[in-house]
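Recap for those who missed Tuesday's class. We walked through two folding examples back to back. For each one, the amino acid string is listed first and its predicted structure tokens come directly after. Nothing is annotated here on purpose, so try labeling regions yourself before you check the end of the notes.
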Amino acid sequence: MTPSADLSQTMDRILNTAADNLRVAKILVQLGLDPNNVTYDAIFNRLLEIFLANITLANMFALIGAIFFVATLLTQTMVPLRVANMIGCAFFAAFGALAGSITTFFLYLLMVPINAYRLRQMLNLVKKARTATQGDTSMEWLKPFMTERKYRKGDVLFKKDEVADEMFMTLTGMFLVKEINVELPPGRLMGELGFLSPDNKRTATVECIEDGHVLTITYEKLLEIYFQNPQFGYYFLVLTSHRLLENIGRLEDIVAQNRIAQASAAASDPEIMKNTKQK
């Protein structure tokens, strides 16, 4: 006797035992099965009949929509998730229209433009981030995700070594990085290095020296955008690296200017020149 025959007989015995239960018998009758003759083949054939009897265009649309909704659960990044969700909603809307369910139709139909808007927003974010890496480092493409805040002259936005939890972009006014005595005009980014540092500590103190407005975004929100789209994360790292290199270049210029000033002072004062040679 083959293993498949043994399995079939075992399944038949289990089904016959279950059929002896009155509750199970009622369920079998509702499914169109004979409680006195329940076999594995009978159940398979009945399910096949139900499946074939319910193959309609509306149900096929619903099945395809369900497949795309399952795909959204398996998708790890936001852009393909939005695309799969839009396709799934479109098929479910078609199912609602063909099945005559107005509620289902309008529910999923409204979800299509919502997902399309979010998809467009994310694609624009990535596109502008890519453009920024090619020369435009204004980071204005982050504005839709930021909130506005006002500061007055003398206000300290943050201090060096404080724990950081948000990033800033200047809109109006002037702000001073006290450690390096550099003024930040409108359109500049502040506090991005705290997002990348292991302990999220501020690397400098920034004070408002002229009333102005800034836009802020929390690191939590920035991290959410970062992980929703790895491509955006890459471009953000390129941009912040560019900012860091700018700061290094600025410090190098300051050091070079100080050396030139010291050399000029030494050249104009013989006593300083003498002390310099002795050193």
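Example two. Treat it independently of the first, because the proteins are unrelated.
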Amino acid sequence: MRQTRRMKKLLRAAALALLLAVTALLLALIVALQPEPAVTLMQPPAVSDVARAVALLRTHDPRRARPGAVSAVQVGERDLEVLLNHGALRRIEAYSTVSLQRGAATVRSSVPVPPNPFGRWLNVELRLLETGGLPVIAALRVGRLPLPAVLAEWALPWLARRAGVQGELGVLADVVRRVHFTPQRLVVVYAWRNDSAERMLGTLVPAGDQARLRAYSDHLLQVVARQGPGWTVSLAALVGPMFELARARSAAREADAAAENRAALVVLTLYVNGRGVGALLPAARAWPRVRPLRVTLAGRDDFPRHLLISAALAAEGTGPLSRAIGVYKEVADSRNGSGFSFNDMAANRAGTRLGEWALAQPQRLQAALGRSLQDGDLMPAWEDLPEFMTEPEFLKRYGGVGAPAYEAMLAEIDVRVGALAVFR
């Protein structure tokens, strides 16, 4: 009898503990999840954003740096937000803002969560403090719930893995000497090592993606080997077989169809631009080399580059950034290159649509591309679009980027892109 009473007490205590735990969890969800995002999607990247990013990359390229030399890079709030929203966290659907003060920084992010009774948004606020080296986390708030800063330190490795940037962060931790916060500007003091460039490249591609890239590189080798003895091939003749492989691999392996599409686009993009996968992945330099050919689309060899670079960027979840990069190149060409060309923009926007479908409707795109294609299936009508305009001519005729005449021309191009058979 005594043992029975003891067992009942233990069961009541366990039930009470479980009830308290469930109650605490429910209360935490109520205060942590909120009905509205604290951060809305920032303004899409502009030409000026891309220009600053290109200048920073050229100035601080580890391949050109002297190992051990101490340098400093300054980055503004806007550039950090572009990086967070369209670059580093491209695999996580989150909207972020950064506020820089003297000696401190505040990062706010809003992450959508699946439908539930408590709220659709997880709003996170993180406060960082400057030290003599790397910053430390001083405060963490999730919704209305303040949490210990040590919890954020524990969660950061998991978030880095989710975002696919743990390797890059590891390299940066080795080379960054100090992070300094000033009003509206971040200053990073660093010194590249002998192996920094190779290590950075080696971390960009996870092991699973490396195996995919090898499969598509080997397949492209076979596709190119089947071409005639000439030195020119249509992009359509390469895209069809590559996406037929993507469809077969997705079906047979129950694989991630979007990841298969990304791998196919990356291999094609590097090949068309005269580079092998080794330019992205050092280990791939030992793979069999694909015979170089001149790849054309609608009879031109610049269209495949425009289309595939935009597609590869968009397939990484950076659609707005790929559009901005396309505009940036055309604006740069209007100043000191071949001139602003709306037919190049047509190739850019067709590529961006292709990359977006590679993510959003991966199997549908595989079915559309994994067949016998013609150039007109990939490139919209372009012959009547203005091209080779100098900057003064472009400004006179279209008013510049964002002006009504410019936007009207882009709208017409988007109609033509939407009419392509692969998108219907």
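Answers for example two:
The chain has two domains: 47-201, 205-423.
The two ends are 76 Å apart (CA to CA).
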